[in-house]
């Protein structure tokens, strides 16, 4: 009887381990939990908060619109970042969301928005399902922590990208970690719009890290 | 022998005629304010008295005091009428209520016109020219620019602060955006009377197309604004001692200098500026003009020091406290604090998705126990204010939040119909004045059904529908929010919807809600806020500080406080 019980327990644990090992959720979950404990802070996260505090975006970007993840701007030595904002429904339930409606340039040295404007194209509704499948079930607070970690990595990779020198081995590792985190976090249906923010940057990531997001048509 | 009765068919026309004659006559109401007189005798009597006074004054040149008095009486009647129309029309049970409302507002327009005529007859020539030009302005931006020029002319006429306004005017040509924003701000908050008059006189935007207001009101507001600017810049530490003119010149020079350095924009729109560049020299209270009522601040965003000059806030006692945990709740372990609902829907893949809004139920329960033990205090009126909540229609959380604040401040009965009507009116006004994002000509952007949804309210315009001076806080501190809530009024905040609803599908989405109260510990430390959320339709939801503060800070720590 005892042996049967042990066997059953072992089988149960094995099954649980196997499930955990294979499920793509666990990587994102553990990384998010770690990020939540470490509480990443960056000038980039602060600058994004500042979008709502006056400046050029104050009468352009609706308070309801989520911000995308910032992308390093070209020739700014890691100081300027492009970011877009996209409309999304603000009632509970599966949200409807749209292609970007506004773009801004952030300066992390001053923490201010340098410029902000509505996009020329009228936003189009995107298919439902905002986040990568790997993030499913991670939870709102851990996901936010993960996004802050990505902000910190974006700042770091921008410095490598903005440097006049070829990336050092550490810089290459930063780029690899960045693209891994970006793909884990970013909205799949918005990837073409991220690419358009700075195609040169994404091609640099492809060369440096051996991976990137697809080029937008 | 029984008498033969006449055939029924023969009597039918006679019976019908009798019925028609006996039927109560449908009242034909005259096309003016008196439509409501059978129901609101006192209001009508006040209306008649004011009308008689205006008729008697026709053609006369009145002084400012008299004009201000007439104007105040008119506004009082406008406001009371508004409340009556909202509150009573349902009870009157009259057909064609929209037409009757139109008649009522038409009556008010007659009064308004009379006051305007008197104002024009009494005003100096150049002010009359300004006033005329204001009425003829067609484009909002042009109008606001005109206001600024107008302010200068009026100020010169009064001998006040010409230098300061010249600096403003000179800067305007170079920094159009700054001035436009400033003017928007000043127009909305400096002249609540304008928007009130426009809205109330023109419910459908048809009766009049221009703003109307009294010159005296503008002058009074201008004086107030100058006082605030003087305080904001730290100039004229003792305006009384130095004399009004000298203080104004000093202030003008200071504002000019700060404008050149881009400082005024910061003062107006970011209270942080006051912290970064504190006023040196005189103590904060010394800069306050004697007799100045700091509760009537006209700037939308005042430097922090203005509010710091207020007496320490008192913790408001709840008028409708939430009941303590009942015996049954204790027995079953049910929490007296409502931490939010549990919602189930289908996600994008069609799978069942359950959302428990309370991200930290254990924390809520801990606070509930403290509350049971009498170790906490409730600030505000979460129980009483829960009646104002309703479900927003589309992307109108900011407008629906303001509808609640407006209804409470104006004594509007919070029926669902009234709240929806307010929401609709605010949406119409916001669209009209480009204070709703995107293409305001596209009604679908409200997101009610079909078309392009996803419209919303830009941060800058939060609180603009309230028709009352508000202070807008950006990147505020946690204790500033608690202090504002403790002053007792409803406070609007924007928060990260994903965190507020504990639903990662809404991560980073902004959502406006109203704080109706707070739970604090014995030392006055925050334990959590009570909110009304028009997204979920939940009132008096308790959100622990652990859940609320990150959600609020994530979206720029914004809150709007009516003054």
* Average pLDDT number of chain B: 63
- The total tally of domains of chain B equals 3
| CATH evolutionary superfamily of the largest domain in chain B | Phytochelatin synthase, N-terminal domain
Radius of gyration of chain B: 28 Å
C-alpha Rg of chain A, in Å?
A: 20 Å
Structural class of chain A: alpha+beta
Instruction: Classify the beta-strand content of chain B into a percent band.
Output: 5-15%
Q: DSSP helix count of chain B?
A: 23
Distance between the termini of chain A: 65 Å
Q: What's the β-strand tally of chain B?
A: 9
**How confident overall, as mean pLDDT of chain A?**
85
Shape of chain B: elongated
How many structural domains of chain A? 1
Name given to the CATH architecture of the largest domain in chain B = Alpha-Beta Complex
**Largest interchain contact:** A-B, 48 and 60 residues
Number of strands of chain A: 4
Give an overview in words.
The complex is a heterodimer of chains A (217) and B (563). Chain A has 217 residues and is α+β, with helices and mostly antiparallel strands. Chain A has one domain (28-209). Chain A contains seven helices and four strands. The radius of gyration of chain A is 20 Å and the shape is globular. Helices cover 51% and strands 10% of the residues of chain B. Chain B has 23 helices and nine strands. In chain B, the strands form two sheets. In chain B, strands 3, 4, 5, 6, 7, 8 and 9 form a seven-stranded antiparallel β-sheet that branches. A two-stranded antiparallel sheet of chain B has the order 1-2. Chain B is elongated, with a radius of gyration of 28 Å.
